[in-house]
Specification:
Layout lengths: L8 H13 L8 E4 L5 E7 L2 E10 L2 E5 L20 E7 L2 E10 L7 E11 L2 E5 L12 E3 L2
Antiparallel strand pairs: 1-2, 2-3, 3-4, 3-9, 4-5, 5-6, 6-7, 7-8
Length: 145
């Protein structure tokens, strides 16, 4: 049985989006739908736990850090016009994620540069047409005990 068959579409999209945003292999990302409908996506790397709340708004993927230390409050949703714009589409059984970097302009309409298109099917992530700076790995880090 394919592991992705057991996941909902929201969970598959969350896994693919977090893998694309933070340049990780999707198989290390654990996903779980929470009672409020959000998907909790998490992975462990470099002796740290990284966790994100993910929600879908149409074709847009919006995420936040669930807990900011020391306040204990959730982080902000990454839906500001100057944030990266992360979108998805289904291509057969694949989830295709596009991450576009925002570039500040003098008027109120920011431009977005494509950073990459990522295709996820089962346990495979393929990056194509990657340009621009890598995503910061400093977001969402929580030290493991």
């Amino acid at each position: 049985m394919n592991c992705s068959d057991e996941l909902s579409i929201d969970e598959r999209v969350a896994r693919a989006a977090i893998a694309a945003l933070f340049q990780r292999e999707p198989e290390i990302i654990h996903v779980q739908t929470l009672n409020d409908g959000l998907v909790l996506a998490s992975y462990q790397a470099d002796d740290r736990l990284f966790a994100y709340h993910v929600c879908l708004d149409g074709d847009r993927v919006i995420w936040r850090i669930p807990i900011l230390l020391p306040s204990g409050e959730p982080g902000r949703w990454r839906d500001h016009p100057l944030d990266q714009r992360t979108t998805f589409r289904m291509d057969g059984n694949k989830v295709v994620v596009t991450v576009a970097e925002s570039v500040q302009q003098t008027d109120d309409a920011p431009a977005h540069h494509d950073r990459g298109v990522f295709a996820y099917a089962g346990q495979f992530l393929q990056a194509r047409a990657i340009s621009g700076p890598p995503a910061s790995e400093a977001k969402g880090r929580t030290k493991l005990p």
